Amino acid sequence: MAHSLPYYPVNEFGPLMKGLVIGGVGILHVFLAQFAIGGGALIYYFERIGQRGNADARTFVDGYFRILVLVSFVLGALTGVAMWFTTIQVGARTIGLMVDEFHWLWATEWVWFAIEISAGYAFYRFGARLTDQARLRLLALYSFAAWMSLFWINGILSWQLTPGEWVDPAAAHESGLP
Asked: Domain span at residue 150?
């Protein structure tokens, strides 16, 4: 299988490029993306407290969510694109193999990511006008979708970081994915 893959030109920028640039951008992206997952659950928790009478919690939700959108959505999206650009520059064949082998898993992850972003922007734009129940449901959807996006990416990356010759598409279940 690996011998029949097309050849893609690879840019070589010196001995530090592959490890440091991909690692640096990856660490920054993961750090920012974790705000979406943990921040979503935290905001849901504080929204519940706020609806039970704690005005400070409600104020926290409205203020913190604006920061979450800026950090997680904007900077997280930019570093996510930077991850794809960087990895394609230094390992296009590897990325091509990963996309070929796991296109349905990537599609599943992108659906959850689209739900996460849609729910987040809907709350950002319309949260002040929603009923309490609608606010909780939208925040729960946002938080769950962020976690599911992480779940699918974790499975794909588990395959990618597994040493050896594990490129059998039938073995996708070995990465922890159903």
From this structure: 10-162
Which residue numbers in the chain have pLDDT < 50? 1
C-alpha 149/C-alpha 76 separation (Å) is 13
- Look at residue 5 and tell me if it is in a domain: no
pLDDT in tens, 111-144: 999 999 999 999 999 988 999 999 999 999 999 9
> Structural domain tally of the chain?
1
Question: How far apart (Å, rounded) are the C-alpha atoms in residues 49 and 173?
Answer: 40
- Which residues lie closer than 8 Å to 105 by C-beta, 6 or more apart? 152, 155, 156, 172, 177
Rounded to the nearest 5 percent, the helix, strand and coil shares of the chain are 85, 0, 15
- Among 140, 139, 145, CA closest to 124: 139
pTM over 0.70, yes/no: yes
DSSP state of 5: S
pLDDT of 115 reads 96
Gyration radius of the chain over CA positions: 19
Burial environment of residue 4 by CB neighbours within 10 A (0 to 12, 13 to 18, 19 or more): exposed
- Centre a 10 Å sphere on the Cβ of residue 97 and count the other Cβ atoms it contains: 16
